[in-house]
From TrEMBL:
InterPro entries: Perilipin (IPR004279). One of its GO terms (biological process) is lipid storage. It comes from Peucedramus taeniatus (Olive warbler). PANTHER family: PERILIPIN, PERILIPIN-RELATED. It is found in: Lipid droplet. One of its GO terms (cellular component) is cytosol. It comes from the Eukaryota. Belongs to the perilipin family. The keyword Translocase does not apply. This is PLIN3 protein. The keyword Nucleotide-binding does not apply. Keywords: Lipid droplet. The gene is Plin3_3.
Amino acid sequence: VKEVANLSLVSSACDVVSAAYASTKESQPYLRSVCDAAEKGVQSVSEAMASCVQPVLATLEPHVAAASEYAAKGLDKLGEKLPLLPKPVEQILSDTKELLSSRVAEVKEAVSS
């Protein structure tokens, strides 16, 4: 999970969503109240689950470690096949706009000639 979260694409997407969430909470007082209540609820549930799950995780730790290693290898292979994964969202959008602009220019040129 940490490796996936550290991918530029994922972390920048999370930053964009987080900024939009914060902006919405700031500009909408009614939504802020609802969001604050939901955040407190999620925090309470997370704390309760952590205490219940901890003994199970301790028992499963060797299996979790093996699965984590396997997942990391799979993520490395995926990164090789999808070169956009290490790129931030902003760069992917910029590259896509540039590609579309060049394709549209090529089509215009082809049509005019």
